[in-house]
Design brief:
single chain, about 140 residues, mainly alpha, Recoverin, domain 1, two-stranded antiparallel sheet, two-stranded antiparallel ribbon, about 50% helix, about 5% strand, disordered C terminus
Length: about 140
Amino acid sequence: MKRIIIATAVAMLAATAAQAAGKDGHARPNFDTNGDGKVTLAEFKAVSAQRQDRLFDRLDTNKDGRITQAEVDAAPKRGKGGAHAGGMILRLDADKDGAVSRAEMAGMADRRFQMADANKDGWLSPDELSKMRPRRGGSGAQ
């Protein structure tokens, strides 16, 4: 009986881990921090901010609060074809000064949320979240 319980628990944990990971094997963030089945802009921005801070800190190698083309070019390449997240960062340069600040990067969360909110009800459903990342070649929200 113990073996059956242990085997069931292991199978459930494996299924949960597989469900939390995308097709690429990377864990997807849980944007629904209060577990109500809806992701508000505040929840989305809070989770996005954590991820953006890690990316910003990794790319801003001279720690001047700005990411430049030189820093993006010097960043280690990852993923298929040697691509990395820094390659798209400079598109966020709203003031066109040749560098991306934390504030410019933070604006990305607002834009992504608005684009994902297909029915414009002010929150993201699991279906809307699942449709966010396919444009970039994966599954589920990033």
